[in-house]
Amino acid sequence: MEINKEKLDEIILKYGRDKAHLLAIFQDVQKEYRYLPKEAVRHICMRLGMPQVDGFEVATFYKSFSLKPRGKHTVHVCLGTACHLKGGADVLLSFMRELKVKTGETTADGAFTLESVNCLGACALAPLVRVDEKDFGKTTVAQSRNIIRDFTDHH
Amino acid sequence: MVQLSINGKKVTAEEGEALLKVARREGFVIPTLCYHELLGSSGRCRLCVVEVNDAGKKRVVASCLYPAKENIEVFTDSDEVRLVRRTVLELLLARNPSAELIQHLAKQHGVTEVRYTPDQDKGKCILCNLCVRCCKDIVGVSALGMSGKGPMKKVGPPFDEPSETCIGCGACVVICPTGHIAMEEEKGVRTVWQKKFELAACPKCKRYHLPLFQLEWISKTRNIPVEELMVCEDCR
Ligand code: SF4
Ligand code: SF4
Ligand code: FES
Ligand code: FES
After folding, report:
1. Among all ligands shown, which has an atom nearest to the Cα of B45?
2. Is the peptide bond before A127 cis (omega within 30 degrees of 0)?
3. Which of B129, B133, B146 should one mutate to test binding to chain A, selecting the residue with the greatest count of A CBs within 10 A?
4. Which domains does chain A have, with CATH numbers?
5. What separation in Å is there between the alpha carbon of A117 and the centre of ligand 3?
6. Domains, in order of start, for chain B
7. According to the model, what pLDDT value does residue A154 have?
8. Does residue B125 line the site of ligand 2, with CB under 6 A?
């Protein structure tokens, strides 16, 4: 993976090259690449004067960071208590089938990453699916295909 | 200095000294896994539990961290202690069924059955952190750390790849209490944490001894010519 070191340095400098802002730096970098490229983590650690393994520890501790490339869109299927009771697990299975990936994986074309989450805070709409920032309430297994189609680029 | 008692015996200790240290000095046996003379403890294994009676308030605590205090009564082998210790060992055995030391300790302390489904993916690692701290604080290269969390937490080099900074010294292998870390040597090549090191052959006895990379590192940090270090300890 080719990373743009100037861009990284810009972000690092924006936070005063301060270790205390590692999380914020990672967040900005992840926004840039949609994931945290290993080479970026290495470069950041070098600039902040910290062991690579400490950057690795932080990058793997928080679920919001990913060291693997992420899809253009993220499908979050809720498996919180309410959603689970309303059939969230079946909805998740239907997305796994449609996208041909397991939870946590990204489709071969880089379009979608599938994730399960524990409660998105809209339990009244259970079972809930959130694609990027958009919520789909009371989803059914049959809807997963349509939801995916909504987010697929048509050329 | 403070006065306290251990299993009824009156002893003196420095205020704040870890109970484990005091007890061992006085000849009491307390099993431990994550405590090390040089590195102290980060209280991870909980095998070192003792019971403390502090003015009528009884508690089971980790002796490697609990500070000595005036007048407390310490028990290293009470019913409470034995119960907690057995639970700790049962949990450890469920996590690391293949670790010989844990099998041995479990047997020694009367743990005969494990009521949990044993893990198959943890190897012998109890996440005690000793290797991480050894590599950072004693060796000084910080090649190891923890990654992930919860049941996925594990120890290793950054990105689970051969580390740029690991010098192949093997100190982590020696300090690991359970023998989790593998180090192999074959035909003059040492492998540890997936990184391969060419070993230096002593110019006098021709024996392979330390990784070249380690010698270069020592040479650089201590300002000793590499040629001098190439000679093994026995021939020096
Ligand atoms: S072998 Fe490598 S990881 Fe282990 S203590 Fe030495 S430098 Fe650190
Ligand atoms: S590898 Fe050994 S020393 Fe390192 S954390 Fe695991 S048990 Fe402890
Ligand atoms: S359980 Fe799914 S939104 Fe709360
Ligand atoms: S020796 Fe005290 S917690 Fe491990």
Report:
1. 4
2. yes
3. B146
4. 5-61 (1.10.10), 73-154 (3.40.30.10)
5. 8
6. 2-108 (3.10.20.740), 130-235 (no CATH)
7. 64
8. yes
Triad B133, B135, B139: Cα angle to 5° = 120
The model's pLDDT over B125-153, given as tens digits with 9 standing for 90+, comes to: 999 999 999 999 999 999 999 999 999 99
Q: How many CA atoms lie within 13 A of B131 on its CB side?
A: 28
Question: What's the pLDDT band for B41 if we cut at 50, 70, 90?
Answer: confident
Query: Angle at Cα B77 formed by Cα B75 and Cα B79, nearest 5°?
Result: 100
- Encode burial over B56-85: b for 16+ CB neighbours within 10 A, e otherwise: eeeebbbbbebebbeebebbbebeebeebb
- CA A141 to chain centroid: 22
Residue ranges of B 155-184 with Cβ closer than 8 A to chain A: 157-159, 163-165
Q: Are B130 and B174 in contact (CB under 8 A)?
A: no
| End-to-end C-alpha distance for chain B, whole angstroms | 46
For the Cβ of B41 lying below 6 angstroms from any atom of ligand 4, the answer is yes
Axis crossing angle, helix A52-61 with helix A38-48, rounded to the nearest 10: 130
Interacting residues of B187 by C-beta distance below 8 A, sequence separation 6+? none
Encode chain A (155 residues) as per-residue pLDDT tens digits.
778 999 999 999 999 999 999 999 999 999 999 899 999 999 999 999 999 999 999 999 998 899 999 999 999 999 999 999 999 999 999 999 999 999 999 999 999 999 999 999 999 999 999 999 999 999 999 999 999 999 987 65
Count the residues in chain A: 155
Compute CA distances B17 → B64, B70, B77, whole Å: 9, 11, 20
At residue A49, φ and ψ (nearest 5 deg) are 65, 40
pLDDT given at position A155? 52
- The answer for residues whose C-beta is within 8 angstroms of residue A17's C-beta and 6 or more apart is A47, A48
Task: Tell me if B165 and A38 make a contact (CB, 8 A cut-off).
Answer: no
Flag whether the ipTM exceeds 0.90.
no
State the pLDDT at residue A105: 93
pTM over 0.95: no
Residue pair B104/B93 in contact (Cβ under 8 Å)? The answer is no
